[in-house]
Amino acid sequence: MSSPDFPPLDSRTFRQVLGQFATGVAVVTASAADGTRIGMTMSSFNSVSLDPPLVLFSVDRRAHSLPAMREARGFGINILGEGQRALSDRFARALDDKWNAVDHHLGAHDVPLLAGALAHLECAPHAIHEGGDHEIFIARVLRVSAASAEAPLIFFRGRYHALASTDMPQR
């Protein structure tokens, strides 16, 4: 919605401005009702609440796997390390055989958990909300694990980046 004081935003400019916010990269996974494994790369992942433990991620309404995500009994959130760029790229593609030769094991509600991820969050659906051209999934975290000391995979200005240092001086 625009007003005389604020003309409509150009979507390309809006996307470029949002790209100024560096994010980690996660792959959200699930098992469809027919057992098909689903996975998609996300940078739209963040915490919502500590009590109860809730997180959110958003899915484009045009995503081929959106109907299966809506019906999923659980979600796996796999936080990727800097050495997992190829995995991020693989799950960012639409309609490919994303799971071919991908090392993983099954967690709660048969969600695929990617081997080597920095952390796993095993979740149950909590709510889905409309969010413009996306749907916002809120998930309740059931179980977590962190297995690696590797630095995270970072996405900034439309590209992957590495952290210069994982240590920040204390003030």
UniProtKB/TrEMBL annotation:
Pfam families: Flavin_Reduct (PF01613). InterPro entries: Flavin_Rdtase-like_dom, NADH-dep_flavin_reductase, Split_barrel_FMN-bd. Keywords: Oxidoreductase. Residues 18-162 form the Flavin reductase like domain. The keyword Oxidoreductase applies. SUPFAM superfamilies: FMN-binding split barrel. It comes from the Bacteria. Belongs to the non-flavoprotein flavin reductase family. This is Flavin reductase (DIM6/NTAB) family NADH-FMN oxidoreductase RutF. It comes from Xanthobacter agilis.
